[in-house]
Design a protein that fits this description.
The complex is a heterodimer of chains A (523) and B (176).
Chain A lengths: L12 E4 L3 H12 L4 E4 L14 H8 L6 E3 L3 H5 L32 H5 L14 H15 L14 H13 L4 E2 L38 H7 L3 E4 L3 E7 L5 E7 L5 E5 L2 E4 L2 H11 L24 E8 L15 E2 L15 E5 L4 H7 L7 H8 L4 E8 L9 E8 L5 E6 L4 H19 L5 E5 L34 E3 L14 H20 L4
Parallel strand pairs in A: 1-2, 1-9, 2-5, 3-15, 9-17
Antiparallel strand pairs in A: 4-11, 6-7, 7-8, 10-13, 10-16, 11-12, 12-13, 14-15
Helix pairs in contact in A: 1-7, 1-12, 5-12, 6-11
Chain B lengths: L2 E4 L6 H7 L1 E2 L3 E4 L2 E4 L4 E4 L5 H14 L7 H17 L1 H18 L10 H10 L4 H15 L32
Antiparallel strand pairs in B: 1-5, 2-3, 3-4, 4-5
The chains are: A alpha/beta (523), B alpha+beta (176).
The structure holds flavin-adenine dinucleotide and iron/sulfur cluster.
The site of iron/sulfur cluster (SF4) has 14 residues of chain A, from loops.
Keywords (chain A): FAD, Flavoprotein, Oxidoreductase
Pfam family, one (chain A): GMC_oxred_C
Family (chain A): Belongs to the GMC oxidoreductase family.
Chain lengths: 523, 176
């Protein structure tokens, strides 16, 4: 049973956010017998509640609280108040996610060493290596049931994948398959196998796709050591005169402010909210926000270099049937500067329903050029580009000077300018994506601009040297021993791979570290 | 409130002719826009019915799908009438925007321009205005989120209740 903990209980670990990072950390600690309270800003919707409808599901799950944007990225123009497409609900963005689960490559932990200094980029090596993470990656893959690991077969390919595969083969790519997916290709972990429903982005009603909502969280609750408190928006982290954090202030479901005491606080609100909360927790002792002696909190915001390529064929495809991300081409993921950029990218199939296609194919577009594309919606295939983007000091999350949310907390502004390396990579990927579809007879292709960010990374980055980043190699803040960061904001650099497997891996590793430090009474 | 009436609007053909037709298809009667051929009518509450008729044409010119009946465009823009009823500023935005369109179009007004290209040229000239953006922006959800039109585009919508596509063609492509 879920254990309700007292507000004054200062023995608990408080985790802010119940997504990939927070939900996993919470369960891992609870399994070790450590008492945990997860405070989650959003409501709790079980998988029966999910809706097979793009806009209705968006209304149910997405983070819609006001945010602002600036910078030259197109999202700032098309979606000025929606910089990111992420979730506010128990389970966090693991309700919306597609399930692609790839390990980072060895060189992606050492970008400064591998790529060298790049003008306008704030590259840094991670303080850990692939070898450090490998045992934890293995645990994460097992926990999440990733296909093509642990003898789990790959998923069957849907129509969208078959088009990609035929094109990639003709074009000469060597590594194209149905991916490493945290989606059951056969029943596992008391969860169903994928029924090819095609609404992975709207929450998997079969529970076939891994989400902390129906894996980590109930497992943690079953230990009696985990309480998840939904509709609890944390607005400030408190500390004592010595600088140690002592608890958090949150607005409860009725909007009333409460303080939950804590022995340890772990921030896992995703890369926009986590720095927002640290910055908003400024005090006379920490005038620039918590854990911000380096000035790096909120900086180096990364969102992966993305974009999509949709193509129309003279015959039907019905790409929306079946898994949303149904296959991958990995040939461009290597670092090969001869292509005109450093780092690499993955190409992964993606399908949107008609309502989202209308909103995202060419935001702002109108007239026959736009509508004739939609007229052939059922003849379309599509892929998504996900590549490594350059961390930049000025790409950052800051507190808005005047706009506030209903709790009086300044809203986050997200500033992003593409680095020339990002632009060169995106253009290359548009050409390669088009070539794949041309190889199987596309009659028209669409280089589609990036959507609001689904991968948000880097704003509390890991560093060896406390001057270069916010947290150490365990996600522990350099400045405050009992304050941790447990989400994608820890990423020193982004790699070309979808981030969630690495977020989960880091959370498992962090749980071991926290348990050891607690046992040793160092925190 | 705007109501879309299904069924015969109850005007005789003679009466309709007397009132004069707008464009080829839509008729203004009292406070309603009526499509006599297709048996639906749309009553306006805040906006002038002529304004609504022009909005419907404008909606089609922004997102032209020849396989979609006017009715869907009418549904897509009716929220402007509702909003105009609650917000005088919105009413002014729409009425003034449409008046401007008519003025730019010349004597016959916007709906009097026979070719889509002519109307699109007028829209091009105003595409950065808040009026145009409000109409276009509203259409993205107002038009494409109507479940009734999804089959026209070959989109099948909700699939969980049918057991997903695992035995309904997720991999049925044959031409590759
Ligand atoms: C459409 C889509 C598809 C995706 N597909 C993939 C994929 O295939 N593979 C992949 O690796 N990744 C994918 N992602 C990304 C993936 O979902 C995220 O990287 C991952 O969930 C991030 O984990 P997190 O723990 O950092 O944050 P989240 O999972 O977003 O969790 C953060 C939680 O914190 C809560 N929160 C925030 N602030 C506060 C506060 N102040 N108080 C209380 N609670 C708070 C939020 O409500 C949220 O529930 C996808 C994302 C989207 C949107
Ligand atoms: S396609 Fe599979 S994983 Fe995606 S929502 Fe449907 S059943 Fe779940």
């Amino acid at each position: 049973m879920a254990a309700p903990f007292d507000l004054k209980n200062d023995d608990v670990v408080v985790i802010i956010g119940s997504g990939a990072g927070g939900g996993t950390l919470g369960n891992e600690l609870a399994q070790k017998g450590i008492d945990v309270v997860i405070l989650e800003a959003g409501g709790r919707y079980e998988y029966d509640d999910f809706i097979n409808d793009e806009w209705d599901s968006f209304a149910q799950l997405a983070w819609k609280d006001m945010r602002t944007t600036s910078g030259d990225w197109r999202v700032a123009k098309d979606f000025p108040n929606l910089p990111a497409w992420i979730v506010k609900a128990v389970g966090g963005t693991t309700t919306h996610w597609a399930g692609a689960s790839l390990r980072l490559q060895e060189h992606e932990f050492k970008t400064l060493t591998t790529y060298g200094k790049i003008e306008g980029a704030n590259l840094l090596d991670w303080p850990i290596t692939l070898a450090d993470l490998e045992p934890y990656y293995a645990k994460a893959e097992d926990k999440m049931g990733v296909t093509r690991t642990n003898d789990i077969p790959g998923l069957p390919g849907n129509n969208n994948f078959k088009v990609l595969k035929a094109g990639a083969d003709k074009f000469g790519y060597k590594e194209c398959h149905t991916g490493r997916m945290a989606i059951n290709s056969q029943p596992r972990d008391d969860r169903n196998s994928c029924q090819q429903t095609g609404f992975c982005f709207q929450g998997c009603k079969w529970g076939a796709k891994w989400s902390t909502l129906y894996t980590e969280i109930p497992k943690g609750e079953a230990t009696g050591h985990l309480e998840v408190r939904p509709n609890s928006m944390v607005i400030k982290i408190n500390h004592d005169a010595t600088g140690k954090v002592t608890g958090v202030v949150y607005a409860d479901k009725d909007g009333k402010l409460q303080e939950q005491k804590a022995r340890i606080v772990a921030v896992a609100g995703n890369s926009i909210e986590s720095p927002r909360l640290l910055l908003n927790s400024e005090s006379s002792k920490y005038p620039h926000g918590l854990a911000n002696s380096s000035g790096q909190v909120g900086r180096n915001y990364m969102r992966h270099t993305t974009g999509s390529v949709y193509a129309i064929f003279d015959k039907p495809v019905h790409m929306y049937r079946g898994t949303t991300m149904a296959g991958i081409v990995r040939d461009e993921a290597r670092n090969d500067p001869s292509r005109g950029f450093v780092g690499g990218y993955e190409l992964e199939t993606l399908a949107l329903g008609l309502p989202f296609m209308a909103a995202f194919l060419n935001p702002g577009g109108w007239g026959r050029s736009f509508t004739t594309a939609l007229d052939h919606y059922d003849h379309m295939a599509g892929l998504w580009i996900v590549g490594e983007d350059m961390p930049r000091a000025e790409n950052r999350v800051t507190l808005h000077a005047s706009e506030k949310d209903p709790h009086g907390m300044p809203v986050a502004n997200v500033h992003f300018d593409d680095h020339p390396n990002d632009t060169a990579m995106r253009d290359h990927a548009y050409r390669q994506g088009a070539a794949i579809y041309d190889a199987v007879g596309a009659t028209r292709v669409f280089p589609t601009p990036p959507y609001p960010s689904t991968h948000n990374l880097g704003t509390n980055r890991m560093s060896e040297n406390p001057e270069h980043g916010v947290v150490n190699k365990h996600g522990q803040t350099h400045d405050i021993k009992n304050l941790f960061v447990s989400d994608g904001s820890q990423f020193t650099t982004g790699g070309a791979e979808n981030p969630t497997l690495t977020i989960v891996t880091l959370a498992i590793r962090q749980a071991d570290y926290i348990a050891k430090q607690m046992a040793a009474k160092t925190i | 409130m705007v109501t879309i009436h299904e069924g015969r609007p109850g005007l005789s053909r003679r009466e309709l002719l007397k009132r004069g037709s707008i464009g080829a298809l839509l008729v203004i009667a009292g406070n309603a826009v009526i499509s006599p051929e297709n048996a639906w009518g749309l009553e306006t509450a805040a906006l002038k019915p002529e304004t609504m008729a022009t909005l419907i044409q404008m909606a089609r010119d922004i997102y032209p799908h020849d396989q979609l009946a006017d009715k869907f465009y009418a549904v897509a823009v009716k929220s402007h009438d509702e909003q105009a009823g609650k917000d005088a500023k919105h009413k002014e935005l729409i009425e003034a925007g449409i008046a401007d369109l008519d003025k730019r179009a010349g004597t016959g007004g916007y709906r009097g321009l026979g070719w889509e290209e002519e109307r699109v040229a007028v829209l091009k000239a105003i595409e950065t205005t808040p009026f145009f953006q409000a109409v276009r922006g509203g259409l993205v959800v107002g038009l494409y989120n109507q479940k009734e039109i999804w089959p026209v585009f070959g989109y099948e919508g909700e699939s969980y209740s049918k057991g997903g596509y695992v035995s309904r063609g997720f991999d049925d492509i044959e031409w590759l």
